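User: Assemble these into one structure.

Assistant: Restating your components, then the assembled model:
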Amino acid sequence: MKKIEREVLIIGGGSAGMAAAAEIAEKGHSVVIVERESTMGGILNQCIHNGFGLHRFKEELTGPEYAERYVNIINELPIDQYTGMTVTEIDDQKDFKLVYAFSSHEGMVEFKVKAVVLAMGCRERNRGNIGTPGSRPSGVFTAGLAQRLVNIDGLIPGKKCVIVGSGDIGLIMARRLSWVGADVQAVVEIQPYPAGLTRNIVQCLNDFNIPLHLSHIVSKIYGKDRVEGVDITPLIDGIEAPVQTFHIDCDTLLLSVGLVPDNEVSKKAGVIISNQTSGPAVDGNLMTNVEGIFACGNVLHVHDLVDFVTEESIRCGSYVNSYLEGKTKGSQYSVMAGANVRYITPNKFTSDSDNKFYLRSMIVKNQAELVVSLDGREIIRKKQKHVQPSEMISCEIKADLLKSTGLNEKSRLEIGLKS
Amino acid sequence: MTREIICISCPIGCHLSVSYRDNGNVQEKDIQIENNKCSRGLIYGKEEILSPKRVVTATCAIDSIHMARIPVKTTGALLKNSIYPLLEDLYKIKLMPPVSAGDIVLENFMNSGINVIATRSLSR
């Protein structure tokens, strides 16, 4: 078995892994990226639509263009890149970690490293996760898989499609399928409000007169070998109203019903997963409960903008640098999600440096207020023009605000939204 | 006639009520816009009636060992009614590697001044 020794191993060569690797290599530490696909870039490669990079590069790029900017950055740096290689296990030996991976080209490889960055991204929820009754014909795809088939493999999944879920991938696929000549019959959303960004509702559905059925579910799938149609049932006060069920003939059903951080390898290494985010619980240094294992990007929590993934991952890279140099920030105190906040990450803060948090709202509201309190005492109140669950909120808290506050081990920071 | 258009200039997404006389040749001064919270709503609403435009992203065939399609985009927003003719043209194109991001795939489509460029590089 081939044995390789480096300071840091990064699992995943998407936007998170590349940004973290660049930050680490720039400080002179040796770093290796292990990527499962044959090229770097991750999910960006199949997201051929534009709207990426407005924050990071101050221009509107498509997914592949954004990926290529970062591929060019990491190619300029001394970063080892292994593609077509899958990590199967992280063995924590306290002072160092052994990471096992394999590829058809290299066979089994053992990496000996001081730190590991989890950057595996997320995977799609599927039919099993939403429990749709009916037969099990072919023609049921997750939206991301359909996106890959159309945009990279050049295959069109079907001619008459219904999309379940109004998440951004589903909306983007409604337009993409319309543009490759398929007929999108409807988008069905269980919630009373759309899950995706408003601009995607406008440009991907309204432009093509595709109906969006809010508070509706697909209640049955028909077809033996191939999907032949679906039943759609409205929810009235949250309860199915079967009398009003209607039928749509279609040959394809796309599911855009959410993403789950992909943490199988993390769990095996003993990393504790947060119930709120389904990603690792991390401290203010984006380090998991296993010392030396860090996490960033969609494996930590599902982001809606790649720019935020990059920002978080650069920070993660700098925390890894501090760790390698023995300068990791000291005492960590608890952070809790307050009123109307579904989750917040990281779950710890420090008073030694500035803290950045990402949180997700549970409510849709104009003119909301973000309220930060420390041990019950309000320290920040900030106006938010508009909040909704599909748009992540970022919040920065300067170290000065926390330093002179008499922190003790029970100290608790709470961030909430006032409705 | 009156149309409801959602403004996408910012995340608030005002539901604009846009009224105009549909005589086949709508003038800017004949367009009335209500329910906008800021002036950007006025600009957006008028543009959507007078000359709605969209950036188009699509793929062309490529003869590569890595993938069957290569992503492309228009260099600017194209009039909405030119989109399907453009897609027809794009789907007839087959590229050969090497391709660099930014390479022109289709020049000055229908004299619009808009090019279609590759958005991914591929060496083989």
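Chain B has two helices and ten strands.
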